[in-house]
Amino acid sequence: MNLLKIKECLSLKGDYPSQEISKLSMDSREIEKGDLFIAYGKGVSYIEEAVQKGAVAILTEEDILIEDVIVLRVESVLESLAALAHMIREEFKGTVIAITGSNGKTSTKELLRFLLSFDHTVLANEESENNHLGVPKTLLKLNNHYEYCILEMGMNHPGEIRYLSRIARPNIGIITNIGSSHIGYLGSKEEILKAKMELVDETPTMELFVNGLDPLLAKGIGRKVVPKYHQEANTERMNVELACQVCEFLGLSPTEIERRLFAFPGVKSRMQKIEGKEKTIIDDAYNASLESIFYGLEVLSQYPNRKIMIWGDILELGDYSLEIHQKVLEKILSYPDIVLITVGEETALLNREPHFYSLEELKNYLKTFPFEKGDILYLKASHKIGLSKLVPYLKTL
Predict the structure, then answer these.
(1) Angle at CA 225, nearest 5°, toward 221 and 227?
(2) What pTM does this model have?
């Protein structure tokens, strides 16, 4: 990529040399000779490191001069990042697939990546880099070596999916479901639906695949996906269906999809089964909502062994928090063979024991917990609670 093209994209004034740029990066650790370093936020602290590693240009809001380095001074790095990401996407000749929904985005993304990667080159967000920074950051890595780009898109306020869709211009869209996640910000499931449907606002001609079993999505536009594939893939059934049926649309045969599905290893902290000699840990603590907990309980009920559930707060529920936590508690208590332990501030409002406000308190309690051989230990909470951090400790008990 030439620097003059970047100048044109960002509508920069002044004279710049016709300098070739190897790649654009926001991460100073990834900078190599010939790169352009985008110094966003605290990234300004790493400008010197980027220069030492060979960056030939710096994009920044700071008014600085660096010897033998081209400084692109902009009013907003964030707006410039979006413009550059969009420019790179427009030059991409492959297929962009965008995935949004209240739950299951990352699992669907990782399964789709897995299924397509057998015979195609695929770029996708790392982990859950799915916001106004993560999506453009992923697009910076895009080039025509890849055939597919899979973008998970997250949101908790109206307008965010529209913003990301405008940058990424997806050819195919997937909406996994409409649940209660972020209902504290949006107020109702109907408003959550509107926010998710922003996916098609900028690209109305995209092929849209939606969860046909979701009551709200089933009433709207898009290909209504219903159960067809039955192979277990360590993730929620409809996430599997959506990924598989998109692959079928892209030309994969059902037989080949089933074969690949069988080999899927699952996704870390999403119904991830960790087998031990004495007990099995199911780490499902990457995130939580009423719907995903209900699904987890269904899976848990299939085990004949004793179940121990460590449940932490569901966040971003606003005024709905107590009501939703109570509904979850009622559901858990309907399973008589589940031993429940809670942790956090929101679950404390349920006034039940045993409850702990911190992971350290919980760890001390678990030291003396009477585990039995064959126990199934299920971890579920919003990501910020950090329940997955308990896994190494639980293995030692």
Answers:
(1) 155
(2) 0.83
Q: Which CATH number do you get for residue 258? A: 3.40.1190.10
Closest CA to 390 of 311, 337, 289: 311
Q: How confident is the model at residue 269 (pLDDT cuts 50, 70, 90)?
A: low
- pLDDT per residue over 158-194, tens digit each? 999 999 999 999 999 999 999 888 788 888 999 999 9
Q: In which residue are the tokens 């692109």 written?
A: 72
Instruction: For residue 368, report the phi and psi dihedrals to the nearest 5 degrees.
Output: -110, 10
Distance (Å, whole) CA 117 – CA 122: 6
Task: Tell me: pLDDT of 284 over 80.
Answer: yes
Residue 234: what pLDDT?
56
Burial environment of residue 386 by CB neighbours within 10 A (0 to 12, 13 to 18, 19 or more): middle
Question: Number of structural domains, the chain?
Answer: 3
Please count the CA atoms within 13 angstroms of the CA of 344 that sit on its side-chain side: 22
Strand, helix or coil at 108? helix
Q: Which of 168, 172, 247 is nearest to 210 (CA)?
A: 172
CB atoms within 10 A of CB 128: 15
Query: Is residue 209 a part of any domain in this protein?
Result: yes
The range of the structural domain enclosing residue 9 comes to 3-74
